[in-house]
């Protein structure tokens, strides 16, 4: 059955409840909860070292939670059941490719993923301009990364985890990555992308998670962000709108320096005004520097959809 016509998964793609995890004695998460309720592209953002890669590894079953519950596609990832492993693909930030050509990689490893799509692999490699028959040993870092991205997309797993996929790619390749993510073959599944390259994902994301101090502090759809926030650039500091949630000069401060701003969007004041696109880089900085007012303006999406907010989960559970 073509991927685009697959039925939606019976299980919630991802559910993490009251997760506790520490590397050695240093606690990283002390009660992290987050859910991907439906397929889509989720962006996982946060400062260096906040725990994004660790969460992806927990979702792939490479690490075990110390307390709490992690579920992906209805499975407990750490059990590493073959049925689960066939449905999840983790593209780590750093990886080792055997000294094969991309074509040989498909022949030797493609069979591990039951939905591996050889035609899609060839199309992705072509789009990213990776030579099919050149051994990886003779490729640059960026070329290897692109080959790995093509393989990850072609594996067609219901859950795809990508850690900093655009790191090391040139500007043209980043645009090509965005085009690949927007292909219809990707629309049916759940993709979680950890990244600092906010601009690379603006047009691709359906949903945003922002992690800080071991918790997901922002869990909002892009539609909600566009509905709740208004962003723009003023010609100078004197031209900034009143009551900004975040403001920053775009260059060395001077009376003529333009300033970027974020304000609460007031749909009641102009109900027919179209929602403006969300500038993720600005949002990222605003969340990193002064999150409280911004989070209050965005509000709790779960509360409005009847979902339990963080910390109201039922029974805490410890996994093997
Ligand atoms: N193998 C490891 N052993 C010990 N500590 C680790 C290990 N991997 C990660 N950590 C620590 O866990 C914390 C979270 O690391 P992680 O790589 O998950 O963060 P991140 O948000 O992905 O960071 P970055 O944005 O820099 O990639 C860091 O303080 C890091 O030092």
Automatic annotation (TrEMBL):
GO terms for molecular function: ATP binding; ATP hydrolysis activity. Residues 299-320 are annotated as: Disordered. Keywords: ATP-binding, Cell membrane, Membrane, Nucleotide-binding. PANTHER family: SKFA PEPTIDE EXPORT ATP-BINDING PROTEIN SKFE. Residues 14-238 form the ABC transporter domain. This is ATP-binding cassette domain-containing protein. InterPro entries: AAA+_ATPase, ABC_transporter-like_ATP-bd, P-loop_NTPase.
